[in-house]
Design brief:
CATH topology of the largest domain in chain A: Elongation Factor Tu (Ef-tu), domain 3
Oligomer: heterodimer
Strand content of chain B: 15-25%
CATH architecture of the largest domain in chain A: Beta Barrel
Strand content of chain A: 25-35%
Number of helices of chain B: 11
Shape of chain B: globular
Mean pLDDT of chain A: 88
Distance between the termini of chain B: 48 Å
Strand order of the largest sheet of chain A: 12-11-10-9-13-14-17
CATH class of the largest domain in chain A: Mainly Beta
Helix content of chain B: 25-40%
Distance between the termini of chain A: 40 Å
Number of strands of chain B: 11
Amino acid sequence: MTERSLRLAGVVAPTPRRATSKIRHSSIAILNFNWGVNVQNPYLPYPVRIDDITIETEDKNLKTFKFVFLNSEDEGNFDYNAGQFAELSVTGKGEIPIGIASSPSEKGFVMFTVNKVGLVSSWLHAMKVGDVMGIRGPMGNWYPWENLEGKNIVIIGGGFAFTTLRSSIIYMLDPANRSRFKDIHVIYGARTPGMLLYRDELADWEKRDDINMHITVDSTDDPNWKYNTGFVPTITEQKAPAADKDTYAIICGPPIMIKFTQPVLDKLGYSHDKIIMSLENRMKCGIGMCGRCNIGREFVCKDGPVFTLEQLNKTPKEY
Amino acid sequence: MKVIQIDKEKWADGLKKAADSYRLFGPVKGEEFHNFKELVKGESPDLAYLNSRLSAKSIIYPQSEVMFEYSLDESAEDHHIMKEVDKDYSQRAVIGIRPCDAKAFVLVNHNFDTPEYKDPYWIKACEATTLVGLACDAPCSSCFCTTAGCGPYHEVGLDVLLVEDADNYLAKILTEKGEKLINAAGWDTAADADAAARQIETGRQEAEAKITAFVDTDRLKAIDTNELYKAPFWEDVSFSCINCGTCTFACPTCWCFDIQDENRGKTGMRMRNWDSCMYPLFTVHGTGHNPRGTKLHRVRQRFMHKLKYYVDKYEVGIQCVGCGRCIRSCPVNIDIRRVCDLMNSYGSAKDTCAV
């Protein structure tokens, strides 16, 4: 068994969904102001230590970081749902918004897979196990798990946007949750076999009979490649179940994949309220205040990042 | 509502007394313009001004402020852990802020004080601040406050409204905070309530009659966002823009910010700085993709945010108080009143031409 699947053997019941009326914050400190109001500082990260680093892809540009909270009570405060994100705070460099790749059903750590692309992510890639940094969150909304109960779910992912989809799959496959959902399909593609994330887990899921895996690569010269070859939209057309009132698609991937997958889903008859997407935009605060990630009146960080296509159709396409 | 009559002879003495328990801020003339500054003890604000070049927003929301500090020295116990910094939130009063700038804080508050998240720096500074407004008897030609949900005698957001005549200030006390400040200054001569009310009402009517610029905002909410977004006039509106960002820095209702870590040796500070939607870096992704990659995108974002997205999101009107600063400061004469008209009349019979 892989390290990750061993980890899965110890999973416990999922955390209850947070009441939406609760003030969302990420602070460890409660500031008592002189007029007696308690305001928690949503900009203050929880201190964490890097517990493990895994190189995910053959180009070494994607690494998975496993963090543990320095103060154990912070793990309880960092109460998240599959589909949310957090700001990773590299002290002295800045913060980056990254989807949470671990599942709420996995305890004792949180996990993020980061593409090396800018100042902060490059610095993070150079950090070592044991280094101290911060995490601020959880942030944003999540895949609408309560509405998805009793439904068929088709997960469509491409490239390194598979992180919150991994979180979602682990969450749904958890013994405490699997019976809440009907058929689960996963269509996941990368450029080459070596660019797929979480390859050990993908292989484990392939062996299970309670999840239908459709892994694909754009192309490969590996004679032992036993899965699909072709772009995600093509494989979606071939493998995705036909639309019905109980079937939802969750899509996360690069803009080009989304652009060509959507017409396929239209052709298959998926209505736009059953196509669920997760967006990315440049962010700083992560809590709807700094003003840059909006699409129309919606903040991707706070009102999203998860939207139905029906909702997105009403906003300018500034993502 | 209680009105205090302050003899101008007692003005400076009262301020001096108030300065014992408040940090005082007010308009001060520099070489060319008035701007808000912290007053040194004994200094009086220069109330013979039209309006300040920059708004008063930096008193509550500084252009640059420290959020946290940290050590990068691995031999230090708490290295790489963000720590709160001590900040001065002792009570402060702004003397002579214009009603438009005070109303702007009420609009911006919708962004920083939300049901889900509270910005502690904003909230603490607001709580610490008493706003003593100066009614505007000589509005500028570029002011359009009366149709922007505000006005030269507008009281929303203020703790005290000052109305000036030849020998006195009438101080209309609007909140408990306002009363506390007036008491601290020792101004205790009650004005005749009816006469004061009449004087203030007459002043208000005369001042409002001097406003000559107006905007219509009645259709903004009903117009479809995507239709407005695709309107052809954005090409003309943005044509001359040089993305300098002056409008956003001068604006009392612009709140966008950036967060940056600044290191010096083995220590550093996490800072928050004003930012501007006019700059390409504001939205560029790590990959280089930029959802607002052209100046048309950025100019449209500024006006759509103020006049459509904000209107739809908070349902408290436009995110503008009509102070006219962006009109006066724009180096290429982009005029928000014109853009507002283009947006408001879009698709209607009186659809106006952009050029």
